[in-house]
Recover the amino acids of this structure.
């Protein structure tokens, strides 16, 4: 068993910061006294956690109540203010939106059909293939039929015996 307090705590915490749960390099690790030693907190392991130096500095000698406040204010997304987690967040927010709301797709379809002037698809089959071609990343059949249904229920498109007329 590691004997230095920091090594012990890191071992117990699986190498993660107690607060942000990010992998904690030893150079960034520090021992945080939950009940601050300045206020009489003990050095025993039950009063200590290993965490990012930055959050340790931030918590400083706050009372336990204030520390709880800081932690709870993160609303379950605790990130120590050291930038370790922020890169991950940035790439997540740049990730493509996988499920666009259907209304956006409908709006896109309507806008495209309007642009076509007199060369709009005249049959249900060509209308469907036109709609599908607007979504290069693919459009599930279920969404295609939803869009066609929405076009009809909003009276923008009328389908009669596979002939399509428009009121855009
Ligand atoms: Zn941390």
């Amino acid at each position: 068993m590691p004997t230095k307090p920091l090594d012990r705590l890191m071992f117990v915490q699986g190498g993660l910061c107690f607060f942000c749960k990010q992998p904690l390099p030893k150079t960034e690790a520090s021992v945080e006294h939950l009940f601050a030693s300045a206020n009489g907190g003990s050095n025993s392991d039950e009063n200590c956690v290993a965490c990012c130096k930055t959050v340790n500095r931030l918590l400083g000698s706050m009372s336990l109540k204030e520390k709880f406040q800081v932690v709870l204010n993160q609303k379950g997304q605790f990130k120590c203010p050291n930038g370790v987690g922020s890169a991950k967040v940035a790439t997540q927010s740049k990730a493509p939106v996988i499920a666009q709301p259907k209304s956006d797709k409908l709006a896109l379809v309507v806008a495209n059909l309007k642009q076509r002037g007199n060369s709009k698809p005249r049959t249900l089959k060509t209308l469907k293939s036109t709609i599908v071609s607007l979504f290069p990343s693919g459009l599930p059949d279920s969404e295609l039929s939803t869009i066609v249904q929405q076009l009809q229920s909003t009276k923008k498109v009328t389908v009669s015996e596979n002939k399509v007329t428009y009121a855009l």
In short: Residues 17, 19-20, 22, 51-52, 55, 80 surround zinc ion (CB under 6 Å). The mean pLDDT is 86.
